[in-house]
Amino acid sequence: MLLTVRPAAGEAAEEGLADVTVGEEEREDSAGLAAASRATRRLIRHAFKTARPGEVGRPALEAVNRRETGERSNEKPFYAGQKVATIRKYSQVWIKILRYIWRTDIKDSKPDYELTPEQAARLRDLQQSVTVDRAGEDDEGEVRAGGRRAARTAAPAMKAMAAVAEEASLAFWIAMFDHELKDGEFESGVISAAAVLGLEVERGG
User: Fold this and answer.
1) DSSP β-bridge partners for residue 137
2) Which residues face 143 on adjacent strands?
3) Which phi and psi angles does 145 have, rounded to 5°?
4) Residues with Cβ within 8 Å of residue 45, at least 6 apart in sequence
5) Which of 115, 110, 129 is nearest to 37 (CA)?
6) Which of 105, 147, 174, 187 has its CA 20 to 30 A from that of 111?
7) What pTM, to 2 d.p., does this model score?
8) CB-side neighbour CA atoms (13 Å) of 169
9) For the chain, which residues make up each domain, given as ranges?
10) What is the pLDDT of residues 171-201, one digit of tens each?
11) Burial class of residue 7, CB neighbours in 10 A (0-12, 13-18, 19+)
C-alpha cells in the first residue's frame, strides 16, 4: 500500500527523491496525478493566505482551532502565518492522501474505504480537469520559460486550466471531508490513507 503514495512521474524532485520510472500504461495517469497534486498544493497555499482575521474573521479561525481539534481552549485562532517550508511539509501529507485515493480507487482489489457517490463524482471531475501534458506548467500554475512569445501566448490558457483544476480540487476535498463516520471509520478514504501513512494524530507524528 505504501507504494500508492509514491510521487508521480516528474514529481519526485519536489520531494528530494529520485524520479519515478513508469511504464507507458502508467504515464498518462501519472501525468494527470502530478497535475492534480500541483492543484492541491496551490489550493493549500491559497487556503493559508485566506485563513486570516481580515479575510474570514476571528470566530471562524477559533472554530477551526477549537478544543476538539487538539487545542487547549476555544479562544486561540488558527495561525496561518507559517513559513514556506512548513506549508510544504503540511502539503506533502495531503498530496500522499490524494495519491493513495487516486491510485487505489481504480484497483480491482482495493482497501476497505468506500467513496460516497458525491466523492466519486468529484474525483472524476478532478481527473477530467487535469490534462495529460502539463510539462510547461510550474508549481504556481505559470508557464515555464521556453520562448517569450510562446509563453505569452500560452500563459492565459494555462492559468485558466490551472484555475479549473484548483476549483475541482477544492470540491473534491470538501466532499472527502463530508463523510459521516458510523461503525466503520476506515470506510473514509482520508482515514484509510492516514492509517496507511501511519499518522499519529495525538502527537502529530
Assistant:
1) 143
2) 137
3) -60, 125
4) 87, 91
5) 129
6) 174
7) 0.74
8) 28
9) 2-197
10) 999 999 988 877 666 788 988 888 888 866 5
11) buried
What string of DSSP letters covers the chain? -GGGGSPPTTTGGGGT-PPPP--HHHHHHHHHHHHHHHHHHHHHHHHHHH-SHHHH-HHHHHHHT-GGGT-S-S-SPPP----HHHHHHHHHHHHHHHHHHHHHTT-SS--S----HHHHHHHHHHHHHS-S--TTB-TTSPBPSS-HHHHHHHHHHHHHHHHHHHHHHHHHHHHHH-----S-GGGSHHHHHHHHHT--TTTT-
The separation between CA 183 and the C-alpha centre of its own chain, rounded to angstroms, equals: 27
Q: Pull the grid cell for residue 158.
A: 494555462
pLDDT at position 12 over 70: no
- Calculate what percentage of the chain has a pLDDT beyond 70: 71
Q: Which three cell numbers stand for residue 135?
A: 510539462
Contact 12/5 with Cβ under 8 angstroms?
no
Q: Which of 185, 203, 173 is nearest to 97 (CA)?
A: 173
**Can you tell me which residue has the cell 484497483?**
107
> What is the pLDDT averaged over residues 48-67?
83
Of 47, 69, 193, which is closest to residue 119 (Cα–Cα)?
Answer: 193
Q: How many residues does the chain have?
A: 205
Grid cell, residue 52, equals 486570516
